[in-house]
Amino acid sequence: MSITVYNPSSKPAPEVLKTATRKTTLKGGILGIIDNSKPNSDTVLKRVADQLKARFEVNEVIWSRKPTASLPITDDEIQKLAKKCNFVLAGVGD
C-alpha cells in the first residue's frame, strides 16, 4: 500500500512589489469605469463620472461593463483600461 502526499502550499510571494505610478492630479486625465452589471450600477457610476468630470476636469471616460456581477472583466478589457486610463473606478449598485 502506498500513500500519496500533496503539498498544498504555494510559491513564496515576491519580496518586492512594484506599484503603479500615480498622477498628482485628475485634471486632464482619463477615467476608466468598470460597471459590474448590478441593478443601478450604471446610474450611480454615470453620476459619479459626471461629478468627476466637472469637479476635476477629467477629459474622457472609458466604460467597461462586466457580463454579470459574478464574472470578472476580460483580460482584453483589463489591458485596454490599463493602457488608456490614468485611474479606474469599479462600482456596485443595488
Question: What does this molecule look like?
Answer:
The chain contains 2 helices and 3 strands. Strands 2-1-3 form a 3-stranded parallel β-sheet, with helices on both faces. It has a domain at 30-91. Helix 1 links the parallel strand 1 (30-35) and strand 2 (60-65). The model has no long low-confidence stretch (mean pLDDT 88). The chain is of the alpha/beta class and 94 residues long. It has helices at 41-56, 75-84; strands at 30-35, 60-65, 87-91.
List strands and helices in order, with pairings.
Blueprint: E1 30-35, H1 41-56, E2 60-65, H2 75-84, E3 87-91
Parallel strand pairs: 1-2, 1-3
Short description:
The chain is of the alpha/beta class and 94 residues long. The protein has two helices and three strands; from the N terminus they run βαβαβ. Helix content is 28%, strand content 18%.
Characteristic key phrases:
94 residues; alpha/beta; three-stranded parallel sheet; 2 helices; 3 strands
Describe the biggest sheet? 3 strands, parallel
Helix residue percentage: 25-40%
Task: Give the distance, in angstroms, between the N- and C-terminal Cα atoms.
Answer: 56 Å
Number of strands: 3
* Percentage beta strand: 15-25%
What's the number of helices? 2
Unreliable segments of 5+ consecutive residues: none
Mean pLDDT: 88
| Assembly type | single chain
Class inferred from helices and paired strands: alpha/beta
What's the gyration radius in Å? 19 Å
Shape: flat
- In spatial order, strands of the major sheet run 2-1-3
